[in-house]
Specification:
Layout (H helix, E strand, L loop, with lengths): L1 E7 L3 E7 L6 E8 L9 H10 L2 E8 L9 H17 L2 E6 L3 H11 L4 H23 L5
Helix pairs in contact: 3-4
């Protein structure tokens, strides 16, 4: 069973999925949605959950540097609760501080143009979120 991570923004959701062993994260897509209507993301996410046999969803939780949760973090918490209720899957909130900045740095170091970075930054941030989560899990294989 695979895990899926979401980098939730107000207009887009970056999506990454794990391999079957839960060791590595791969960027999948960016979903366009209307934050005011969670249902706008449902068809795309339902398709991904089904096609990739997703068993757990990791939602990036943006926190302030002091650890407090602001408006964006509260929005992610609401969306995570919706996902858990809608799809019946375990949903985990994962501290995503600096994930977008780290993704941007990786893309710059890879000499990806500014225009192309804008198109993949959310997906890359989802990869950073998922890989951080996967690395924190203990594997007893």
């Amino acid at each position: 069973m695979k895990k899926m991570a979401l980098d939730v923004g107000s207009k887009t959701i970056g999506v990454a999925v794990s391999d079957a062993f839960g060791w590595t994260a791969q960027g999948l897509t960016t979903v366009i949605w209307d934050e005011q209507d969670f249902q706008t993301a449902k068809p795309d996410l339902a398709k991904i959950i089904s096609e990739h046999d997703i068993s757990e969803i990791v939602v990036g939780l943006p926190k302030h540097m002091n650890g407090s949760i602001g408006e964006r973090g509260e929005a992610s918490q609401r969306f995570a609760a919706y996902l858990e209720a809608e799809f019946g899957l375990k949903t985990v909130l994962w501290d995503e501080r600096l994930s977008t900045m780290a993704a941007e740095r990786v893309l710059i170091e890879a000499d990806v143009s500014r225009g192309k970075r804008k198109k993949v930054i959310d997906k890359m941030a989802a990869v950073m979120i998922l890989q951080g989560y996967l690395d924190s899990q203990s594997h007893s294989y």
